[in-house]
Amino acid sequence: MPSLRISVLGCSKNTVDSEHLLAVLAPHYEIVQDGRAVDCLLIDTCGFIGDAKEQSVQAVLEAARLKEDGMVGKLIVFGCLSQRYGTELPGLIQEVDAWFGARDFKPLLEYLEIPSAEIEMTGRRLLSDGCRGTAYLKISEGCDRRCSYCAIPLIRGPHRSVPVGTLVREAEGLAAQGVRELVIIAQDTTYYGMDLYGKRCLAGLLEKLSEVEGIEWIRLHYSYPADFPEDVLELMAGNPKICKYVDIPLQHVSDRVLKAMRRHIDGEGTRRIIEKIRNAVPGVALRTTMIVGHPGEGEEEFAELLRFVKETGFERLGAFAYSEEEGTYGAEHFPDTVPSEVKNARLDALMELQRGISLKWNLSRIGSQVRVLAESHSDGMLVCRSEFESPEVDGEILVKCPSGLDAEKMCGTFFDVTVTGADEYDLQAVLM
To answer: DSSP H helical segments within 101-249, as ranges?
Structure first.
């Protein structure tokens, strides 16, 4: 069979897209994951913000050089970057054989001469064992929110939920491949079901997924703060398979900035939903993201953001400097007036504050006993996570593998550890 490799850039949603594609392509191609020469190279691109777009362009240019050197046969580019700039890119990088978008993969598969009867995007072939035992489950596509800074609706289109039954079957297939943890993703997970069922159905979906044999953890990402479905919190508090972990991108707390961002919530509403989550799910770990330097953020608004982060004590927090994206509401209505050096200084100040918060929380965990999932090993150390650490974005729990135990066989399994040490982001632990 001809050989094929997929290179995935950007977020976990792209990972899921590529894994669906691989499941269809695997009967027709030898799937290659290392850097050797291949007959066909597919690049799944990101077009969300400036840095991600630049990374995608550089990856395509590097692949074009590999093609010139004879290491790549056909070069095919798809995903968000080509969805957004599909008319400009072909003339700029002519080494690419074909460009496809991010919304419909049937044209790509037809280009590769896959019989139309086989184009069923329901199976998954996992790309990597880097996070052994874990897989992402994308429950919807697109977004109706239209936040002022976000290009996702332009790229991915309106919100479209995947039916419950389809997701349950996908989860069953993942469990059969050894997956024990599902990370629930979408552009907006809390809006799930509105288009199909006329109401928010995230809690019902999570309950159905928790009944899938083999699945032990279900983790919630990309939850929107406005109109957060409180029945999800009741389920999280009572169902041991639903991790006590909520990823809720807040972006800011200043009324002025939130209004400019078109987030459909103000500062007081933001504080209320955080209080509700903490009260409903004792011991929950909250992860959020913030944007600094958005138009309208002055020194007063940034100081309010710092106070909010300090008072709230998020267990996990990431941040980005505002990037003006053409075609968005913000680019058309709010000039990007905050200088880049000011954005970067604010970003550094916010993350320095968070480092102290994260260290304090991690130190408080020393002596505690936690259940962990081992996802990899290196130099006699097991790299693990508890329900309070999400893959790729959070810290890790490092456990020395006792002599006599096979570290490779322990990957993808659960066991209990005692936390013995901590730094700003990672923990050290020993087997109980």
So the answer is: 106-111, 152-156, 164-176, 194-197, 202-210, 230-238
Classify 256 as helix, strand or coil: helix
Structure pTM? 0.94
Determine whether 92 is exposed, middle or buried from the number of CB atoms within 10 Å of its CB (0-12, 13-18, 19+).
exposed
Task: Please write the tens of the pLDDT for every residue from 200-245.
Answer: 999 999 999 999 999 999 999 999 999 999 999 999 999 999 999 9
Strand partners, 316: 287
Alpha-carbon distance of 232 to 201, in angstroms, equals 9
Long-range contacts of 196-201 (CB under 8 A, 24+ apart): 196/161, 196/163, 197/161, 200/227, 200/229, 201/161, 201/164
* Cα(430)–Cα(398) distance, integer angstroms: 8
Burial of 381 (0-12, 13-18, 19+ CB in 10 A): middle
- pLDDT < 70 positions in the chain: 116-120, 129-130
Please report the beta strands in 297-339, taking only residues with DSSP state E, as ranges in sequence order: 316-321
Q: How far is the C-alpha of 23 from the C-alpha of 79, rounded, in Å?
A: 17
How many CA atoms, within 13 angstroms, populate the side-chain half-sphere of residue 278?
A: 12
Spatial separation of the C-alpha atoms in residues 314 and 301, rounded to whole Å: 19
Which of 297, 228, 207 lies closest to 260 in space, CA to CA?
Answer: 297
Answer left, alpha or beta for residue 249, where phi above 0 means left and psi between -120 and 50 means alpha.
beta
